[in-house]
Amino acid sequence: MAIINKSILFLVFSVFSLHTQAALFSDMLIIGASMSADHSAPSPGKFLAEQVRMGKQNIHVEAKDGKKSTYHKKFIENEIPKMQPNITVGLDLFFHDFKIPVPFKPADEQKLRQTVGVIADHSETFIVGSAIGYEGALDANNLLEQLSEENENILLVDMDSIFKDLYSFSGYHYNVNGVSMVVYRDQVLADGLHPNEFGSRLFTNIIIQKLREKYTDISERDLPYIDIEDFLL
What we know:
Blueprint: H1 2-22, E1 28-32, H2 44-51, E2 59-63, H3 73-83, E3 87-90, H4 106-121, E4 125-129, H5 136-150, E5 154-157, H6 159-166, E6 172-176, E7 179-183, H7 185-188, H8 197-214
Parallel strand pairs: 1-2, 1-3, 3-4, 4-5
Antiparallel strand pairs: 6-7
């Protein structure tokens, strides 16, 4: 009888553990441009979903190669409030918005505030990447940083600095979960812009590090890092 009781307790505990683990992120919206659209490799959002064992049926992708965030305006304003995503990943949502070196205008600020505001207000967690470029992008990124400080739902990933480091002579110094390495654009990017599979996994680990720094109750069991140390060998 004791053996049966122990078996039942083990089964109940296992089911409870799986349920608790699955509750970390119940569903995901991936929104953005080519990186989010799996241009050269599965997106960091999809790798993140794998790490929390999220089913494909719980992942919604709204992404289009080469498009600015304004391409998704109707979807953001009309659909996201209905969806109420548990987690939204927009790592390249603003990649194409400020590439041309022009001043950051009041209209740009209004659009950025509105876009980020709607997504953050209707997502429990919004992972957003900084814009790529100079001049207008710098002002846009300052605003994104300000918004991330004002809204605890927003987690900002500095993709602009990462890409600039990848293109520098000194490379990008990756240091996550005790793994430290210097990588360059030809190792991380398939064509100079879009991440290859290694790069997408690397970006995912950076997201995981930020999530675990922000939400300290997330454990290795809940959200493990991807093993990339030997990927380049």
